[in-house]
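Example record for the data management plan.
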Amino acid sequence: MGTSFQPGDIARAFASRRGWKISKLNILVEGEHEQRYFSLADRLYRQKENKALISTQISIFPTGIGDDGGAFGLQRDFHPLRAIMDVDLSADGKRACYAVALFDDDMPGRRGCNSLTGQHLTYRKWRDVFLLQRLLPRSTRSPEQMQKLVDEANQPWRGIDCEIEDLISIDLLSEFLKGNHKAAEREPQEVAGSVRCSLTSAGKAQYVRFVEDNALLADVRCLVDFLKSMRYHLGLEPDGDTMPPAV
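Corresponding structural encoding:
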């Protein structure tokens, strides 16, 4: 008997060979730390609201770990996976799986974003490729309108990079730096209730563990809000999926 393929099988087989576990909707990020921070925000939100921001419909994962990841790894790996997803269709022409890329809003991330949207005319910024933001509007899915809205919402931080650690509360960062002052490459920059802190590679590894051990929901509020916006842009209910009753 011949093998019967279902929509999505080709994309899942390709992803499996790379060690990626994909879902119907997928957010590809630069590294493991992004994945861990978003998972933490989802867990704390679930405990308080009984709703899931990362459900069985969504996977968030890096395409590589360490030197194999980063902005370059995401830029390298996003198109092959997405290209397969775009042709792995159901009988009625719908994608079984979909993926977007999420870069840090720093020089390597912006370069990766511009490269993907410049080389591949089917990819649009704020639809297929996103940059991490302190505030990501969720009032329209139009890529043309999004750029203006993003610029307006993030005006207080214009010209200031945004990495995943910058979406953690100032209070938690301050507490961390009291005992790990060498983790920061330079003095943190506080602007409009948010912070820009450039951590060393070792400092980032220490900080993600510290945040996982000590964060409350209020400390990851910006992460939660960003996840809600990403859900909106992926066509889901922003506030999350209601959890089933415990058995």
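Summary line stored alongside the record: The mean pLDDT is 94.
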